[in-house]
Amino acid sequence: MSTLEVNTIKPISGGTTITFGDSGDTITKASGVNTNAFGIKGVDSWRLTTGLTATTGSTQVLTSNLERDDTYQNGKIGTGMSESSGIFTFPETGFYIVSFYINSNSSAGSSYMTNAIQFTTNNSSYNVVTEGNSHIAGVAANYVSQVAAKIFDITDTTNQKVRFTYDSSHAITIRGNTSVNITYMTFIRLGDT
Questions:
Q1: How far apart are CA 145 and CA 162, in angstroms?
Q2: Which of 31, 33, 115, 130 is most exposed by smallest CB count within 10 Å?
Q3: Is residue 20's pLDDT more than 90?
Q4: Is residue 141 a part of any domain in this protein?
């Protein structure tokens, strides 16, 4: 058993400073306090449940066939994200790293694929904030995985939201599965804002 000797403990944000006096003073976790209060406080992942043929000619938003990962010892900490028609709402303010992994394949001609995370600050207009790109040569059964990721400082859960998009030059297959994360999104809350 290890011993840590301190005179004062001051929380990173909020809370009350605890001062120790006599030997043997202890800290007791208050009822309802997150036991992971000094580490990652939120983890969630979502995925595309079924494959689709990419619409070409313009940026497309993934709006359907999305579900929270619910198989094979999936991990989740906290409330998690909420989703409606492809728009994801953060459960609380804080710093988040958001990642978007897309898997595609094509056998018809030389193709490009762009995946992106779009962000809104007013719950209306969206801007691309990060993207991944790939080129798929026109050979049979050519598979490509790519990722786009960004750290966000979320200060307003009502107006700051994300959505996930793709843009493709050809009718590429974007792969999805209801049991395996093939095209998927991860959300990790790193700490308080």
A1: 21
A2: 31
A3: no
A4: yes
> Which letter does DSSP use for residue 175 in this model?
P
Whether the CA torsion 186, 190, 192, 193 is positive or negative: it is negative
**What distance in Å separates the CA atoms of residue 14 and residue 26, rounded to the nearest whole number?**
20
Q: Does 29 reside within a domain?
A: no
For residue range 83-107, list pLDDT tens digits in order.
Answer: 999 999 999 999 999 999 999 887 6
Task: Please say whether the beta carbons of 62 and 50 come within 8 A.
Answer: no
- Structural domain boundaries, residue 127: 42-191
pTM of structure: 0.77
Q: How far is CA 80 from CA 75, 76, 101, 131, in A?
A: 11, 7, 18, 23
* Residue 113 tokens, joined: 């694929």
Does residue 60 form part of some domain?
A: yes
Q: Where are the alpha helices (DSSP H) in 29-84?
A: none
CATH number of the domain encompassing residue 85? 2.60.120.40
Helix, strand or coil for residue 176?
A: coil
